[in-house]
Each structure stands twice: as structure tokens, then as C-alpha cells.
């Protein structure tokens, strides 16, 4: 892959490369799969679509935030700073990507125009928080998690930051917001999910029915139901806060390991299964799964996001982005 490197004051180490697009072999059903190679060794991780059609993605191993243009496969990398190891990225109300930047123990904002990086560092007493994921609430406040057992909020306008201790300690990981504005997180080590009160910052633990399930990530559907990827059990589960009910479904295969979860605009649930090296689609209406395996071993897709008709992820094991396009009603 030919690359050119540019050096600038706002974005250090910007790369561009032509994409080599492939389709996964022997795919069934109404899905089209495309792969976009990115920089070797970068550890392509979490992704998020931007309003302009591009895709932002984290390079956890080389400390960068990437921006892919799916139209031609070109991409640029923005250096986030010395020691950076970005984990999650979302688009803020300002249209900019916001990053949980674990390497510098900070929240990072990258200007989508000039790629200037602004850091909001956690308090020194919360060093090595192992920052993971984040959401913006309806008031524009940025909420984030850290696996050492913290979660917090940042006011982007004032820069004020408050960090809270998770009620059961280590494991605070995936995060989501419901259409009503309720904020939830999953605790991987704590084997539970929790609801945050934005006014007080207090978190209320909710126990899944499957013991030691390893709740890893969460995503709300349009009805405010919380979908949970269960790493240890291999389940996808659903909690309805309206009546307190739970349902759970085992992913197909002999040894599913459910990592990521994302609910699309049609309320179809997308998951990643490390056991099957696949992205899996679940239809809650029919209760049927479609497994879409990678065309390379060890894909390790750790997060999913999307936009209407497209589900995106980063193959951290292969340094590629992958998109699954829904091309016809399923």
C-alpha cells in the first residue's frame, strides 16, 4: 500500500492510501460486505459515522484517530499526542469526534476541520482510569466510563469534569443513552448493568438473570429497551426498564463470545462473536440470527456503530474497517 506522510501543527502524521475493497465470500441473504484496509499495526478499534459521510476510527496501538472516506477508501490519521491509546469515539452535538483517550487519561476533541486536538484530562487522583466508552446526553454533557471502576461527566462548554466511583468497583465499560435520555452502562467485571441519574450522578445497579454473564456493552433500541452483549455467557440479552423484564438468546455456534452490540434504525440488533469470528445480526421479531463471518481469521471486531442501511466496525486484528450494507428487506 502506497502512503504519503504529511507533517502539520494541528495533525501530526496524516496518512492517505487507496482502499483495496473486497467482498466476503459466500455471503447469504440481503447483506453486502466491504473491507477497507488501514495502516498496518494501528489496532483499528471503535468507529463512528460522521455527518459528512466519512467514518472516524480509533488507532489504539499507534495513538491516532483516523478518518476514512468510503467513497474512495482514502484515510487520514491524526496524532492524538504522546502515549495516546484511544478506545472509543462518538460524534458530539458540535459535529466533532470526541474520544475516550486512555493513554493520556483524557477526553479528546478533534476538530473536524483543522484536526486540532483538545484534551480534557481526568483529575490526577483518577490516574490510569482505563477510559472506555461515552455518550452525550440531551443537554450536551459528555458521559464516559473507565474500567478501573469510574464513570464521569464533562461539560464541554466550561471544561468542568466530575468523576464518580462505580457502585461495585471495577469493570465499568459499555455505555448508551435511550430516546428519553436515560443513561446506562455495563460492567464487564461486575456482571451487571446500571442506570445513571444525570442530576445526581448516582448509579443504580440492575442485575441480569444470567449469573457471571460478563455484560460488556449496551445499546438502547427505539423503545428504550437495553440490549446487552454478554461476553462470558455468549448471550445477547434485553432488559425492558418499563416493566423490569429480561429476555436472553444464545448466539449460534459451539462457543459464542459476544463482544459488541449495536441496534440499528430498524431495531435490528447487531453483535460481534469472537468465537465465530463473525458479525451477527439478530431480529427480535423473528428471533433469528444471521452470522456473517470475516474473510480473514482473527478479525476481533470490538465495537459496532452505524447509520441507516450500514453497520460499521473495526477489525482490530486485521487493521481493516468493515461495513455490512443491508441491500434489501430481511
UniProtKB/TrEMBL annotation:
Keywords: Antibiotic resistance, Lyase, Magnesium, Metal-binding. GO terms for biological process: antibiotic catabolic process; response to antibiotic. It comes from the Bacteria. Its EC number is 4.2.99.-. InterPro entries: TAT_signal (IPR006311), Vgb (IPR051344), Vgb_bact (IPR011217), WD40/YVTN_repeat-like_dom_sf (IPR015943). The keyword Metal-binding applies. The keyword Iron does not apply. Signal peptide: none annotated. It is an enzyme of class 4 (lyase). Its cofactor is Mg(2+). Pfam families: Vgb_lyase. GO terms for cellular component: outer membrane-bounded periplasmic space. SUPFAM superfamilies: Calcium-dependent phosphotriesterase. GO terms for molecular function: carbon-oxygen lyase activity; magnesium ion binding. Monomer. Inactivates the type B streptogramin antibiotics by linearizing the lactone ring at the ester linkage, generating a free phenylglycine carboxylate and converting the threonyl moiety into 2-amino-butenoic acid. This is Virginiamycin B lyase.
